[in-house]
Write a structure and sequence with these properties.
alpha/beta; Dihydrodipicolinate Reductase, domain 2; 10 helices
Length: 389
């Protein structure tokens, strides 16, 4: 593998393992790569592994750089033309595929939760420690929205004062329909016991973990709202995983201040299509931002003895990695996904993030999420507050 310091303005050659939704999103981000004004490196997709050969045509017809297609993911790891891999496969395959990629010396972006359970996550982190020359990160794109970045800038500046409370969440209504056929995310064998926490949880942990806010314990309320679903073949089968999770954690910041952090990961949230939110309340300032109204950032700055007034600020197209798009235009999911990939390449090439909150989730941060979610499962079983170790 080439030294990462030599990669700037070179071409980093990727293989995709997993030709589903997120694999296509990555390919689409690569197609938009020229919109970045100062790309840290060029990027090219050269190989694809998917267990469904029907997915090959879309990729190869749109990306002629792909010279290898296979149903065996191990084959792309043997390809000397591959520098890095993006792996987007069901959770039960994370440990095997991620460890193999790391051991093959391929830089890795993997999907959350980075292992179906804590044991699988530990195996992935052990491989990272054994191969420190391989750059490894976890996918989480929503903090790259300009509104979220502005809240993160306030964290970096210490603008909130003493933290009073934090609320983060990711809300879907995609499973509200009881007639929606079951898929792999509703089955413990492929998704894991975490259920919606494994699927959505890293998104809501990304900013607090990067801020250095460490959960000390958790009380979890987990709900299996739709215990049975059709299987698409005329049968009704058990729907085993948790649909919704509400976690309350006693959390500590770097100064030792303790505050409540409420996390929500809902797959059944009536009225919510795909809402990620971040709320921080402090003694000097507070801020609220959500993908529901992505152009609106709410900030409250306290003046001693004065009125407490929420300001609604219009946020433009102002991402951390500049593009050809003007600041007055709207920013959306494909844009934050592109920004996340720019962050991955920037840190791969330069050895550090562009700025503190413009970096992808680290393996160590995924380990923290597994400690939290494992404790949440115990909290649900025992009906008790559980310490996080």
């Amino acid at each position: 593998m080439a030294e990462t310091a030599m990669l700037r303005m070179k071409t980093v050659r990727f293989a995709i393992i997993g030709g589903g939704l997120m694999g296509r999103e990555f390919a689409s981000a690569v197609a938009r790569w020229p919109t970045l004004l100062d790309a840290p490196a060029k990027i090219q997709i050269v190989a694809l592994a998917s267990r469904t050969p029907e997915s090959f045509d879309w990729f190869t017809s749109n990306f002629p750089s792909i010279k290898q297609t296979t149903t065996d993911w191990r084959e792309v790891l043997k390809n000397d033309a591959v520098d890095a891999v993006y792996i987007a496969v069901p959770h039960d395959l994370h440990a095997e595929t991620y460890v193999a990629a790391i051991e093959a010396g391929r830089h890795l972006m993997g999907e959350k939760p980075f292992g179906i359970d804590q044991r699988a996550n530990s195996a992935i982190l052990a491989a990272c420690r054994e191969h420190p020359d391989v750059f490894v990160r976890c996918s989480s794109e929503f903090p790259f929205y300009p509104g979220a970045q502005k809240v993160c800038d306030l964290i970096d500046a210490g603008a909130f004062g003493k933290i009073i409370e934090v609320k983060t969440g990711f809300l879907h209504s995609s499973d509200l329909d009881p007639n929606k056929p079951i898929n792999w995310k509703r089955q413990i064998a492929t998704n894991g016991e975490y259920g919606c926490m494994g699927d959505l949880g890293m998104h809501v942990c990304h900013v607090p973990f990067r801020a250095g806010w460490i959960p000390g314990n958790v009380r979890a309320i987990l709900s299996n709202i739709m215990p049975r679903r059709p299987d698409g073949k005329g049968n009704v089968v058990p729907c085993e995983t948790w649909d919704n999770a509400t976690l309350l954690s006693e959390t500590r910041d770097a100064s030792g201040n303790v505050f409540p952090w409420t996390l929500k990961t809902f797959r059944i949230a009536p009225g919510e299509r795909n809402t990620w939110y971040l709320e921080i309340y402090g003694t000097q300032a507070s801020a609220r931002w959500s993908t529901r109204e992505p152009k609106v950032l709410e900030i409250l700055k306290y003046t001693p003895g004065g009125d407490q007034i929420w300001q609604r600020i219009q946020v433009g197209y102002e991402p951390p990695f500049k593009t050809i798009t003007g600041a007055n235009f709207e920013f959306g999911f494909p844009d934050c996904f592109l920004q996340m990939w720019a962050a991955f390449l920037h840190e791969l090439v330069d050895g550090k993030p562009l700025k503190h909150f413009a970096g992808c989730v680290t393996p160590e941060e995924t380990a923290m999420s597994h400690r939290l979610f494992t404790a949440a499962l115990q909290s649900q079983r025992d009906g008790a507050v559980v310490s996080i170790r």
